[in-house]
Amino acid sequence: MSKAFTKDDSSDAPLVVPARAPLPAGATNYVTRRGLALLRDELVRLRVERGRLESRSAEPDGPRELATAVARVAELEDRLSCAQLVDATDASAPREHVHFGATVTVRSDGGGERTYEIVGVDEADIACGRVAFVAPLARALLGKGVGDVVTLRTPRGEEELEVITIA
Fold first, then answer.
1. C-alpha distances in Å from residue 25, one per residue of 22, 29, 33
2. Would you say the pTM of this structure is higher than 0.85?
C-alpha cells in the first residue's frame, strides 16, 4: 500500500514551535504600552490554551500539542521578562526627532506620503504602518528631524524619504 494512504505517526517528528519575531543579539527588547498589553494578552490566551490541552493530553496528538503550547508560553514569558517599556507619551521626551514610539510621516522622492509608527519587534505590522525599531526603515529614520532626508535601500533600488511630521 502506498505511504500516501497510511496514517503517519508524526509523534517521532521533531517538535517545531513557530518562532517569534527575532530580536537581534544584544538588542534591548523595547516595547510600547500597546505592545506590552498585546504581549500580556497573548500570554493569558496561551496559558488558557495550555490548560485546555492539558485536559486532552491522553488524545493521540495531545502530548505533542501540549508540548508546543508549553514551549510557546515559555518563549513568551522569556520575551516579557526582558521587555523594557518606553513611554512615548512622556512629556519630557524630545519631540523634534524621530524616536521609539513616534509616528512619522515621510514623503518619498515620487511625492507619495506614508505614515509609520516605530514600535517593538513583537508589535511590528507593516500592513498597519507599524515598523520594528530594528528594521532598516526605522533605523534610517531614528534621530532625524522634520525636513531631514534619508536614503533607504530597497529591493526596487534606493529611495529618498523626507521627514514631514513627527508625532
1. 9, 10, 23
2. no
